[in-house]
Design goal:
36% of the residues lie in helices and 20% in strands. It has 8 helices and 11 strands. Helix 1 crosses helix 2, helix 1 runs antiparallel to helix 4 and helix 3 crosses helix 4.
């Protein structure tokens, strides 16, 4: 059983702490059809990336600022659209105050709403799409998360469900645990460790550090 030591943990949101998958698929598919974009292409490239960047690449003819708010708002407010990932509440409760943060590719307004809808705490440090210039796989979001927590990047451990997020974590000098929710375990091979559920991640304070047990 691997044991890691870190000073703070950084979590992606969708697919790691909350599950909005049905709403995401429903809303993006409807949007794609309405805007003449292949839904399968959108769904294949969107995970772990900011919606604005997906739109810039696949639908340069639309106004990204307007469409991002429309898409993320529809996902967030979809009835029963967001639930907590199994084990998320228990894991977050085991973490000391200001020793963890959320780093998401979504907008802050909707990220906060999804956490609340899932019954999860909103952390003091939340880095959202509107807080950075470049999104994942660029390291900027995770570096900003570490800076706001007052922790060296190399002292952070990331929990991610998407290859783009794992690339971002490693580019920032952090270790990454891949969570096989959105992608199959073999698609997360670049992660330092891969787990199938958050129940496989245990955290306890030890000599001023966080001791993370990977089962």
């Amino acid at each position: 059983m691997p044991i890691l030591y870190c000073s703070a943990m950084l979590f992606d949101l969708d697919g790691v702490l909350v599950d909005s998958t049905p709403a995401i698929i429903q809303v993006w598919t409807a949007w794609s059809k309405a805007n003449g974009v292949d839904p399968n292409t959108v769904l294949n490239v969107m995970h772990g990336r900011r919606s604005a960047e997906v739109l810039t690449v696949l639908a340069p003819h639309v106004n990204p600022e307007v469409e991002v708010r429309r898409i993320e708002g529809a996902i967030t407010h979809c009835e029963h659209g967001t639930v907590a990932i199994p084990g998320a509440a228990e894991l977050l409760r085991s973490l000391p105050h200001r020793r963890w943060a959320v780093v998401t590719s979504g907008l802050r307004e909707f990220a906060t709403a999804r956490l609340k809808a899932a019954g999860l705490p909103v952390p003091d440090v939340l880095v959202a799409a509107d807080d950075v210039v470049k999104g994942k796989p660029d390291p900027e979001p995770y570096l900003k998360g570490a800076e706001l927590l007052g922790v060296e990047a190399r002292e952070c451990l990331v929990i991610e469900d998407a290859p783009a997020g794992i690339v971002a974590a490693h580019a920032s000098g952090m270790k990454a645990v891949g969570l096989a929710t959105t992608y199959a375990a073999e698609d997360l091979h670049d992660a330092d460790f891969v787990v199938r559920g958050l129940q496989q991640v245990g955290v306890a304070e030890f000599d001023g550090k966080l001791r993370v047990d990977i089962q």
